[in-house]
């Protein structure tokens, strides 16, 4: 990847450790760049974090000396990238309204049509 600019978000699962470092700089978490590099955190690792158990999350936070707020920022930014990737690939669907909310029948029907047309 080009070292002058951050890596492309749609390719985050193939990011190298260096790409992850550039991305950390972009999302204002550059202070973790070196520790992520030392721990070999690449795009594949970041992608797998969504499957981490609570114990694995806590171990990662300790190993990288992360503050909770920074870890939450990291997770939010990862979610933003994953959502963008899914939308670009046509895999994302709009969230269905909560069951306890009054649902407009036209809105519900429109949602069902959109989702079923993707199958």
TrEMBL record:
This is SAM domain-containing protein. PANTHER family: STERILE ALPHA MOTIF (SAM) DOMAIN-CONTAINING PROTEIN (PTHR47626). It holds the Pfam family SAM_2. Residues 15-50 form the SAM domain. It comes from Camellia sinensis var. sinensis (China tea). Gene3D superfamilies: Transcription Factor, Ets-1 (1.10.150.50).
């Amino acid at each position: 990847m080009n070292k002058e600019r951050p890596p492309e978000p749609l390719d985050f699962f193939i990011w190298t450790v260096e790409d992850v470092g550039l991305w950390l700089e972009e999302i204002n978490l550059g202070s973790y760049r070196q520790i992520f590099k030392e721990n070999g955190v690449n795009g594949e690792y970041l992608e797998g974090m969504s499957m981490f158990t609570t114990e694995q999350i806590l171990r990662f936070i300790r190993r990288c000396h992360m503050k909770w707020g920074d870890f939450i920022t990291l997770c939010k930014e990862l979610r933003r990238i994953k959502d963008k990737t899914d939308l670009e690939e046509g895999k994302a669907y709009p969230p269905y309204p909560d069951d306890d909310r009054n649902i407009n029948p036209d809105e519900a029907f429109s949602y069902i049509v959109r989702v079923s047309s993707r199958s």
